[in-house]
Design goal:
Number of strands of chain A: 10
Shape of chain A: globular
Radius of gyration of chain B: 22 Å
Oligomer: heterodimer
Largest sheet of chain B: 2 strands, antiparallel
Order of helices and strands of chain A: EEEHEEEHHHEHEHEEHHHH
Number of helices of chain A: 10
Strand order of the largest sheet of chain A: 6-7-8-3-9-10
Largest interface: A-B, 23 and 20 residues
Strand content of chain B: under 5%
Number of strands of chain B: 2
Helix content of chain A: 25-40%
Helix content of chain B: 55-70%
């Protein structure tokens, strides 16, 4: 599946959220969306899911115009999964089992099909079947968030959008969520759109990065290119570099030599830095 | 949806209404609301409507905001109208099986609906033109004589203001839950009315949960800012009645007396 926005703008009653956005989302990629608060990131992903019924411009899915209802309003795109910010606040069923089954029940799946899907999804998100009869509200914050993500993965989306999935989590739960998303994305060439303010996570996991600023899409970059080469753009729009990249740039500045790192991932940056430290006898 | 709830929102338009003392607004609007309960003749309804429209125009609140705010109560208005149309006995003008519609029923239905619209618009005018903290301070000042009777006036006024302030926030939360359900293939707006009403029941669980969580956070925030029990607090901004407050008081008094005379 290819998702394409051509010259898309979204106007709310008192302001324009995004304007003249052109973008293509290819399959099999982890694409991060970054930008300051109010830059238009959430509106952009809501457009992709079809949650904003009226937009200016064209939205094509696999080169076909997106489905619209009789009034010409865009319909929700079923093959895209969407995990909202703080998804655990949106759990509403009385048991974990019912929560997970909700979406498939709406689509008319049989009980047996639903049970099979639950058995497939639970290990993927690192949870056991023992929690199925429990009320979601009794679980820990990290577990609740996994349940919320699992309930969206139950729909077997082709593209998954996650809006700040690690916000408010402790470091261990954060890594666990990111790793489960990575495992899911790397299966069957799936795509993932990751909206985040954590640039360290973006540098670590993304293939591509979309940059938003003041409602405009400022660029769609290869992750390494953005964080290692386009540093002035990030500074211009008020975003700081990921910490490992900051360290790399500091050492480059102090030594006066350019350091070649294989990627902007933490491990590759340390691999590039450590030999220099060793040569200097640190 | 959050923008469609009038009560609890504040919109800055720099109008005369915004500059009035909060106590003037609370007393005037309460008086007017009480006088609306006495509306009976068509003339009194007409006068009340003219006054409310006049006040809304003076407040400079955009008409689209007011119209959007009335939409959520359309259902209540519809039920009120139907209730009076069906259950008021009188001169029958149309009947079908056991349902009879009388002339008096139509009149009563229209009157009650009209009265509710006027009351909602008036109540909204208070919060649309007064900042929550100013409102709390005004309410506190008005109720201050009761503190001699050991009534916790400060806490009471803060409680009322927080309750009003939280209405749009709760609606916003509801909107988020509905959107999350829509993303999971359940679009409530496509359901028939009766089913839609029933679908709201399970949503109340997370809504209540997050509201309690927010309330708890707010309690900590109030404590962290050393609010204490609110007793004996002073204010940097002192309330003082101005010339226009007295003028507004006279106008409202005139209005209320007119409605009273029309009833007699």
């Amino acid at each position: 599946m290819v998702y394409q926005l051509n010259d898309v703008s979204v106007h709310y009653s008192n302001h324009t959220a995004i304007q003249h956005v052109n973008c293509t989302i290819q399959k099999g990629k982890w694409i991060s969306v970054i930008g300051q608060t109010g830059a238009g990131k959430t509106t952009f992903v809501k457009v992709l899911k079809g949650l904003i019924p009226a937009i200016d411009g064209d939205y094509l899915i696999h080169h076909q115009p997106v489905n619209r209802d009789a009034k010409g309003q865009i319909r929700v795109v079923p093959e895209i999964g969407f995990v909202f910010q703080y998804p655990e606040h949106q759990l509403f069923e009385t048991t974990v089992q019912k929560e997970l089954a909700f979406a498939l029940k709406q689509q008319g799946f049989s009980s047996q099909q639903i049970t099979e899907s639950i058995q497939t999804i639970l290990p993927q998100v690192g949870l056991s079947e023992e929690i199925l009869p429990l009320p979601p509200f009794q679980l820990s914050g990290g577990q609740k968030r996994r349940i919320a993500i699992a309930s969206v993965l139950m729909m077997d989306p082709k593209l998954l959008i996650v809006d700040e999935p690690t916000a408010g989590l402790d470091p261990v739960s954060r890594v666990a969520i990111l790793q489960l998303l990575q495992r899911w994305q790397q299966q069957d060439d799936r795509s993932l759109i990751f909206v985040s303010h954590q640039l360290e996570d973006v540098a670590e996991y993304s293939d591509e990065v979309i940059v938003f600023h003041a409602g405009q899409l400022r660029g769609h970059y290869d992750t390494n290119n953005l964080f290692l080469e386009q540093t002035s753009l990030l500074r211009e729009i008020g975003l700081s570099l990921p910490e490992p990249v900051q360290l790399l740039k500091l050492i480059e500045e102090l030594s006066g030599h350019k350091i070649e790192a294989a990627s902007c991932r933490e491990e590759d940056i340390f691999k590039a830095i450590i030999p220099i430290w060793k040569r200097r006898g640190v | 949806m959050a923008n469609t709830v009038l009560i609890g929102q504040y919109i800055e338009t720099h109008s005369i209404f915004h500059r009035l003392d909060p106590r003037t607004k609370i007393i005037s609007i309460t008086m007017m609301m009480l006088s609306f309960l006495m509306l009976e003749t068509s003339l009194s309804y007409l006068i009340a409507t003219i006054f409310v429209i006049g006040f809304l125009m003076i407040s400079k609140i955009p008409a689209r905001v007011i119209w959007r705010g009335l939409k959520p109560i359309l259902l209540i208005l519809m039920f009120t109208f139907l209730y009076h149309v069906i259950f008021t006995k009188g001169t029958v003008i149309w009947s079908w099986l056991f349902v009879e519609i009388s002339e008096e029923g139509l009149q009563n239905g229209t009157r009650f609906v009209w009265r509710i619209i006027l009351l909602v618009l008036l109540a909204s005018l208070l919060t649309l033109t007064t900042k929550p903290l100013t409102l709390a301070y005004g309410l506190e000042k008005l109720l201050s004589p009761l503190s001699k009777l050991h009534v916790p006036v400060e806490q009471f006024s803060l409680m009322i203001v927080i309750a009003i302030r939280f209405i749009p926030t709760i609606v916003q939360e509801l909107e988020r839950i509905l959107l999350a359900q829509k993303a999971r293939g359940f679009d409530m707006t496509t359901l028939p009315l009766a089913k839609r009403m029933l679908s709201y029941i399970p949503i109340l669980v997370p809504l209540l949960f997050t509201t309690i969580q927010r309330a708890e956070q707010l309690t900590y925030a109030i404590d962290a800012r050393a609010y204490g029990n609110g007793k004996g607090r002073t204010s940097y901004k002192q309330l003082k009645f101005q010339k226009m407050d007295y003028q507004a008081g006279v106008i409202v008094m005139f209005f209320a007396l007119t409605l009273l005379l029309l009833r007699i």
